[in-house]
Structures are given as structure tokens and as C-alpha cells.
Amino acid sequence: MALTELQLQALARDAQQRAASGDFAGAEPLFARIADAQPNSGQSQHLLGQVRLKLGRFAEAREPLERASKFLPRDPGAQINLAGCLSVLGAHAEALAALDRAAKLAPGNAAIAFNRGRALEALSRAEEAERAYDEALSIDHRLLPALSARAGLMAARGDWMGALSDLDTALTSRPNDAALRLRRAEILLAQGDWMRGLDDYEARLDLPEHGPPRWAPEGLPRWSGEPLDGRLLVYPEQDNIESDAAMRDTLMLARLPGLDATIQCSARVAGWLDLPTIRRGDPLTGFAAAVPLRSLPRVLGWSLQTLPPPPPLHVKAEPEHPQAGRIGWFSTADPPPNVAVERDPEHIALCRIVVGDDHAPAHLAAAMGIPTLLRLPHSADWLWGPQRGASPWYRTVETLVGDAAEALVARTAR
292 forms bridges with which residues in the sheet? Predict the structure, then answer.
């Protein structure tokens, strides 16, 4: 049965009151009834789409928002809301078309220009995206999201100075913004500028949503280098302590000469390290403070020129073993043809040379003093520094970019 005008008005009042009070779940079915009764009303479709956006029901919001954009062709808000919905759904080309319509209806709008940049960036149209961010910033030179986004594009094409300038401008307005500080840290550290980058890198610990889940011990203060009345817990910050990333960080960073420290690690890593260790979940009685492994360069004042030696190990290379002389291959790249390789990490001690990616097996070989060719991606972990070749982290490691096929063939053939 069709709703009367009075019934529609009553539904609309109830729906709007619920939405105004934040009860979007209660408002949505009322707006849906109104939209069903008025399928050609752009306003009704727009309100239904908006409340579904508030509820995070983006797929269901798409149809009413698309209808609203057609029935309200001169309303920039209808185009903007549709674009936002489409962006979340990954329909970036359609989102860009909606934003282009909005830009014609509301020229000089910094938010529209910024969102056009985001859509263009998602479509891998980096140059156009940067121009859109330029436009947004010409309208509002302190628009923080645009400054941060443009900095990312500049850094990606190697314009470090431009990227840092944008981030410095943004941080002038929000000096304690953890996301901005972390982005600045990543740029500085990628260039090997630990002196300026390490302080900002600590902002990652205030951003639990940044990257994979992060772990920290409850009840222990974060150590900043002060004298302690008790033991220090040093731990990998990865939530999964059994992960390759946690093992790799432990092997690379557990360099604690002179410290009364205990390493929290998996049982497997504990079997390798000749250091006091503790399992995650064990009682932390007697510990005075804790520090994540990735904070050690800052707390202990390391630089790439002053790194402590790798941690001592129980396991040792066995060059005199009858089966020694193998080529360890722990890389996703294919080994050279006609070269027999060892892929079992349990046999690393028998290898005369190891080729690996930036994972735990290659770090174990390096810490054991086995000559190691370590393949790094172009966007390698900042810990390695910007230079390739002989590495300051391990005396027997040579870092290579990508496959470096000729270098691998030449070295493994010898």
C-alpha cells in the first residue's frame, strides 16, 4: 500500500531525529521506506545513501547514491558522497568521474581537489595526482592530508627535499601528529639520516593501526636509556613472535654488549642465541623496563658506522664437516642453472656461501660468519641504509638490489 503524504512526513521526521541523535541503525529502515516510496526523489535517495555510509554499508549505499547523483545533477554534495562510497569499494575510475562533476559544480574546493588526487593516485596516474594535490594546496596551503599525500608521491619519485618540506609544513600545524612524524621518519631513514629520523620513528609505537598488529608488554615502562634497578626486557614488537619478521629482527638487532638484558623470542631463536632469553607469555617478574628491538638504534645511539657486533650464537659454522661446502639458497629468486643448492635452514652451518632474501635464514648465516649474498628490494628496510655492497651489519654480507643475476651466478660458480 502506498504511503500517504502525512505518513511520509511522519517517517521523515522520525528518521531525521534518529539520525541526528546518532541512531543510524534505527534511522536506516525508515529512510529505506521513504526511498522505496519515492524512487525518483534525489533527496530521499541521498539521505538513504548517507545513513548507509554512516553504518559502513558501502555496497548497499552505492545504488541510492548513484540514483541521487542522477536526480541531483547540480548538487556537489551528492557527487562527493557517491565518490567517497565508490572509492571505498575500489571503483576509482567511477569515483574520479563523480569528483570531476563535483569540481565543475564547486570550483576552488580544496577537499574535492584533494580527493581527485587520491582517486588519480589509486589509478596509478601519479603525475596527475600530484597536480591535483598542488591545486588543493594552492587553495588551502595547510591542508594536511594533501601535504602528506603529495609528500608520498614526491618521495616515490626521489624528491626527498620536496617531500620533507611538505611534511615539515604539515608538522608546523600538528607537531605531535604521529602519522606525519612516522612518514617523515621513513623518508629520513631511507636516506640513512638516522640522526634526524630515529626520534620520529618512535611515533610508530603510538599508531597501533599502522601495519601489522603490534605487541608490547603490559605493566612495564618503555626504556629510554636511563639507569635501571632491575633487568631490561628486549622484545620484537611483532604480534606473532614466531613470524619470520620477529626472528629476523631478533637476529639483526639483539646487540646488547654490557646490558643486563633478556631477549624475548621464540624457542627456535632461543636455541640459536647465546644470550639470556624468555618466552612470550612467561612471567615478567624482576624486569624494570622494556624496549622493542627496533628502538635500540635510537636508545643506544647507534649509527651505521658504529654498530655493535652481531649477537653471540650457540650454533657455529662447520667448514670442516665432511658434508660442508654447500650453497645455501633461501631466496624467492631461482638459483643459477645446473647449480645444486641447499634449501633446508637446518643445514646452514654446512654452507660455504648463502644466497637469501631479507629473512631469518640469511641473517642466521650472516651472524655465523658465512659469506652471504643478500637480495634486497628497491624499497628495502631502512635499517640497511641507502648503500649496497659490503654491509656494516655483518662482516661477511654483501647486499644486492633485486635479482642481480650476473653477480649471483659469478659468485656461486666459484
Answer: 235
CB atoms within 10 A of CB 232: 18
| 63 touches 87 (CB < 8 A) | no
Q: Which three cell numbers stand for residue 347?
A: 643445514
Instruction: Give, for 411, the enclosing helix (H) or strand (E).
Output: helix 405-413
Same structural domain, 126 and 193: yes
Same domain, 32 and 147: yes
What is the per-residue pLDDT across 73-112, written as a single tens digit (0 to 9) for each?
Answer: 999 999 999 999 999 999 999 999 999 999 999 999 999 9
Residue 2, pLDDT > 80, answer no
Query: Is this model's pTM higher than 0.85 or not?
Result: no
Interstrand relation of 397-401 and 372-376 (parallel, antiparallel or unpaired): parallel
Number of C-beta neighbours around residue 37 at 10 A: 15
Mean pLDDT, range 152-175, rounded to an integer: 92
What's the mean pLDDT when you consider all of the chain?
A: 91
Tens digits of residue pLDDT in 266-322:
999 999 999 999 999 999 999 999 999 999 999 999 999 999 999 999 999 888 888
3-state secondary structure of 140: coil
Is the domain of 333 the same as that of 293?
no
Q: Would you say 278 and 263 are in contact if contact means Cβ atoms under 8 Å apart?
A: yes
**Domain enclosing residue 383, as ranges:** 326-413
- Which residues are CB-contacts of 61 (< 8 A; sequence separation ≥ 6)? 48, 49, 50, 52, 53, 85
Number of domains in the chain: 3
CA distance 137 to 130: 10
Same domain, 50 and 187: yes
* Alpha-carbon gap, residue 256 to 47, rounded angstroms: 60
pLDDT in tens, 105-133: 999 999 999 999 999 999 999 999 999 99
Q: Can you give the pLDDT at residue 384?
A: 95
Same domain flag for 162 and 234: no
Closest by Cα among 152, 86, 84 to 112: 84
Domain boundary among 269, 286, 314: 314
**Centroid of chain to Cα 180:** 13
Residue 273 is given by DSSP the state B
CA distance 79 to 95: 9
